[in-house]
Amino acid sequence: MRGRFSRSMITVAVAAAAVSAVLSVSITRTLGQAPAARPARVGGKPNFSGIWQANNEANWDLQAHAALPAAVTQPGIYPYDYARVPAAPVLALGAAGAVPGSLGVVQGDGQIPYKPEALLIKKQNAEHWIDRDPELKCYLPGIPRAMYMPYPFQITQGTDKIHIAYEFSNTARTIHLDKVAGPPDDTWMGHSVGRWDGDTLVVDVLICATHNLLKLFRFGWSPQRA
Amino acid sequence: MRGRFSRSLITVAVAAAAVSAVLSVSITRTSGQNPAASVKAASPASASALKTPWGEPDLQGIWTDESDTPLQRSPKYANQEFFTEAQRAELDKERAALLGRDRRVERGTELDVAGAYNAQFMSVKHTGARTSLIVDPPNGRIPPLTPEAQKIAAAEREFRLALLQSTETCKKKSIACTGGKYDPTPSPRRAELPPRYNTARMKRRDGPEDGALPDRCLTGGLPEFGGATGSFRRIVQTPGGIAMFYDVGQGQGWQRNIVMNGSPHLPASIRQWYGDSRGHWEGNVLVVDVTNFSPKTDYQGSRENLHLVERWTRTGPTSLEYAVTIEDPTVWTRPWTVKQEFTTQSEEQNRIYYEPRCIEGNYASPGLMRGQRMAEAAFSKGQGPDPAISDNATDFVGVEDDPLQ
């Protein structure tokens, strides 16, 4: 099954002969050694290539929030909001299923300006998280979610394309720096077109999938924020 | 999470500087390649001076094999490596007659209903220059199996035939039951596990792992030589790194990263669906060594011991040669080598479906299981036929003959 557990940790007794085979490259570097130096600029632009990971709690909630005992909660013995307990299906995860508190990643007051009808849908989605969150089914996470899942992603910055490989579900996307025809159909990961604004890479992502919220995201990536 | 669906198309004006970049490749599409040109030895001297801005051979682009070549050479060509022009023309004529042909097994039979795709659904590409993708051994065929691999293959076959023994397929002696027998009593082996982790179709659907890997959206893998549903790979290069995205199968694309920093392969305990790719340059050739395959993968019987050594060479403005030596000493008695010539595809048309969303639409897998459970429940109440008799695993067999095989 695809997903972060697809790299199955099976101890296989593989004969040394089969592994080393006809490899003629001398293997002297050990794991954990620093990679070869990477140029800071490529083609006159900042080079984003490398392995990156969001260093925040956005994966659990973009907005500022207190710590919670679980992603889905139910009323405890008290009628207070702050005394809810893990919902039955996730109780066995214990603290491993808890939600860390965060000041959020939304600039300003940390809140997303939802319209009332959208806020209602958001609340319903949260209550039915186990049934509705595509992540649990190993579906493609979409943009921007893939950028802030708690796993590394790798950027390969080519001459006309930037390829991003995400750990979750072997997700990939291409940012087109050249002119291309639009996607022939709805997409989960969006259609990303990038352009340079000085040293900032601005990426417009067209997203049209019924399982994603309809949004046009504009991202500015600059070396300072990278 | 459901949102209202509406479509807004926004035209983004892309700066000319970003578009022109540094790559001066003229993308012209040619058809019917001259065999001499397409098999030119990929030596550093003859390769075009197509380099990235940082001085590496430029392998970037969308690449595919624009012609059809069988993996193995038909024995009638013996050691003949290339078709003559006359042979190619004749094969094109024969194969064009396949287009749109609606050959099926006897209509209304169970096998007819179970059959999926015949020639009506398929495209036919021009016959390629080579008689086979395999260039070594010289006879263009996969080397013999080791005794161990033959035993495993026989055990797998026996198990699957046992599951079929009480079906119409075996009763009517369809070629799908070759080597098997008919017995109206379902085999007790139905309660057993297959000899190895299941990857192929079989007539049982008790759980998701009874499904074939394609049923579970798990077919993408290496080596990738293409198939009826197309095979596109996009290569993106950066100093010290290469990423490849594959558009294969039916929404079963995948990607891999070629580690170029000289670090060794992953520890033997870590197995991956697409193996672990470590690359380096030898002159103008990208050499990639792939190991650490998962025992859940299967390529022609080879699983976790599969080892590939690939050679990627940019041979011209629109061409790239791909060669791969395949070995598994537990399966084949010697290594074997495949060569393919790729042609660049239009970046602007961008006809590479870089979103493998097979799982997102996979209603078949749960549906097939539920269907079996419902049929069993109905039968146990005397309300339906015995599901052990119906064959819902065998696809069209012996219907179409591809002149290239």
Please specify the SSE layout and strand pairing.
The complex is a heterodimer of chains A (226) and B (405).
Chain A: H1 16-20, E1 41-42, E2 45-46, E3 50-52, E4 73-74, E5 85-86, H2 116-127, H3 129-132, E6 153-157, E7 161-166, E8 172-176, E9 191-197, E10 200-206, E11 216-221
Parallel strand pairs in A: 8-9
Antiparallel strand pairs in A: 1-2, 3-6, 4-5, 6-7, 7-8, 9-10, 10-11
Chain B: H1 16-20, H2 35-38, E1 61-64, E2 67-68, H3 85-96, H4 110-114, E3 126-127, E4 134-136, H5 147-164, H6 168-171, E5 231-238, E6 241-248, E7 254-259, E8 276-282, E9 285-291, E10 307-316, E11 319-327, E12 336-345, H7 364-380
Parallel strand pairs in B: 2-3
Antiparallel strand pairs in B: 1-5, 1-12, 4-12, 5-6, 6-7, 8-9, 9-10, 10-11, 11-12
Please summarize what this structure is:
The complex is a heterodimer of chains A (226) and B (405). Chain A has helices at 16-20, 116-127, 129-132, and strands at residues 41-42, 45-46, 50-52, 73-74, 85-86, 153-157, 161-166, 172-176, 191-197, 200-206, 216-221.
Can you walk through the features of this model?
The complex is a heterodimer of chains A (226) and B (405). Chain A has 226 residues and is mostly beta strands. Chain A has a domain at 1-28 and 45-60 and 138-226: Lipocalin. Chain A contains three helices and eleven strands. In chain A, the strands form three sheets. In chain A, strands 3-6-7-8-9-10-11 form a seven-stranded mixed sheet, with no helix packed on it. A two-stranded antiparallel sheet of chain A has the order 1-2. A two-stranded antiparallel ribbon of chain A has the order 4-5. The two termini of chain A are 32 Å apart. Mean pLDDT of chain A is 79; it is low at 1-35 and 211-226. Chain B has two domains: 28-69 and 218-345, Calycin beta-barrel core domain (Lipocalin, Beta Barrel), CATH 2.40.128.20; 101-127 and 147-211 and 377-405, no CATH class. The N and C termini of chain B lie far apart (48 Å). In chain B, strands 1, 4, 5, 6, 7, 8, 9, 10, 11 and 12 form a ten-stranded antiparallel sheet that branches. A two-stranded parallel sheet of chain B has the order 2-3. In chain B, a hairpin with a 5-residue loop joins strand 6 (241-248) and strand 7. With 405 residues, chain B is an alpha+beta fold. Chain B contains seven helices and twelve strands. The model of chain B is unreliable at 1-48 (pLDDT under 50). The chains are: A mainly beta (226), B alpha+beta (405). At the A-B interface, helix 1, strand 6, strand 7, strand 8 and strand 9 of A face helix 1, strand 5, strand 6 and strand 7 of B.
